[in-house]
Amino acid sequence: MTLALPVRRPARLSPVLPVAAVVAALALPVAPGADGGAGPADVVSALVVVCCAIRLLRARRRPLAPAAAVVLGLPVAGLVPAALHAASAGAGVTGLGRYLQIFVLVPAAVLLLIRGRADLRLLAWSFVALAGWQGAVGVHQYVTGTGASYQGEDVRAVGTFGTADVMGMATVVSFGLVCAVGLALGRTSARERTAAVACALALTVPLALSFSRGAWIATAVTLVVQLVLSGPRRALTAGAAVVAAVAAGVVLVGGPGVGTAMLQERIDSIARVADAPDQSVTDRYTMWAAAADMWRDRPLTGVGLKGFPEYRDAHASLALSSGSDTGGAGAAFRRQPLLSPHNMYLLVLAEQGLIGLLCLAGGWLALLVCALRGLRRTRAFGGRDLDCALVACGLLVWQLVDFGYADIGGPSTVLTAVCFGLVAWWALVGGDRPSCDQPGDVPAGPGAVPAGPGDVPTGPGAVPAGPGDVPAGPGAVPGEVAPR
User: Fold this and answer.
1) What per-residue confidence (pLDDT) applies to 270?
2) 125-155 pLDDT, tens per residue?
3) Residue ranges per domain, the chain?
4) Are the C-beta atoms of 128 and 176 separated by less than 8 Å?
């Protein structure tokens, strides 16, 4: 009989922490005037993929369930043909690598590294924290006149992304706002819901100062969807908070008179996109028409990855300008070339054809259907994980709406990959099983990474055996330990 005292095993670090490091890397400033190239977040995302691969090799198990493998691997069927007939071999390889990173490899790694709803909530709060930091930088830029140039004034909030990714801060803040609203509408502790509401209210200010019409529209649509999915009672309560947030944002932004005039003009321009569009909207319409014309020439396979800039001038009308003016936020004035149609669906249609669009958008539609099914199942079980469902569904809805006004590109794009991975975990794994977030639980399910050597997963409420315990033999009563 041993007299050794039981020693509690140290808590294992969550494997999702490297994914949180990708989010944290987006807080680093981008060099002024930087064009393309891998940023710190892209490097960390590559390390996350490698880390996930090492875990899979150690486990020696099948990494993904068949359904998850099909949904996440579906874009490859359209990418490979488009890469093979790209304008150049370098463009094909570069484009293939970028698409695989954003829509296949990083999402799959995130799905495999998330162990449960606690990890999903950790990522959601990391989105909120990043949005708070970028939003604070953006508000400071607006107040001090050190932001990007907008109508002759350096007041546009762009965060640490600078003019290299003018839409980066708007995307990050929108993601954080959607996550905060999802957490606030859930059934977690009152303290957590209060903190989420406060964060959501605060993030409306930098979102307004981003002057991004596409982000405003996508966020408004997503918030309405989240309110509807949360149920009528919560929708009424949260609707009043949203109105208060909008009013507070208008008051705070409208302090200086120039802010009120610029913001009002930007909002009014949304209603004039058909009657009296400005030059930026005209350029966008012209590039949309050019992308559609490219697709008509090669309807099945498109013009090849990275082919839009090569074929743009041959298909665009004379209404297209030579580029957009950028400056401020520490960068000198320059003309930014128009290298994409600023519409993800038309970009894929032009470069990958109908095959590529059906494969890519088909995977997104499958994720949306599965995510909504998981939300319905959550409500049937009492709505304990309603916050996770609303965060996942909200992020996916926001991205699908925003893709109508934007496409991939810039340092913030890697956050889109993390979002798709988070959504994929809820849609393909988390929404299909009951909540299992008790201390020590390591839920296993389709797509989850099996426990590695030394891991001792336990069920809800189970107590791991202490040092020296010998499992009971055949016929022993469950829960008992064989005598030593």
Assistant:
1) 72
2) 999 999 999 999 999 999 898 888 877 788 8
3) 17-29+39-432
4) yes
Q: By the 8 A CB rule, do 404 and 343 touch?
A: yes
Look at phi and psi of residue 323 and say left if phi exceeds 0, alpha if psi is from -120 to 50, else beta.
left
Helix (H) or strand (E) holding 316: none
| Helix, strand counts (H, E) of the chain | 17, 4
DSSP 8-class letter at 166: T
Report the candidate in 116, 140, 223 with the shortest Cα–Cα distance to residue 175.
223
The pLDDT, as a whole number, for residue 468 is 42
Q: Phi and psi dihedrals of 440, rounded to 5?
A: 95, -10
Cα separation, 150 vs 142, whole angstroms: 11
User: What type of residue is 97?
Assistant: G
Instruction: Tell the burial category of 251 from Cβ atoms under 10 Å away from its Cβ (0-12, 13-18, 19+).
Output: exposed
* pTM as predicted: 0.83
Cβ atoms 229, 206 nearer than 8 A: no
Lookup result for tokens 């889109």:
416
Tell me the C-alpha to C-alpha distance, in Å, between residue 209 and each of 118, 338, 367: 32, 24, 32
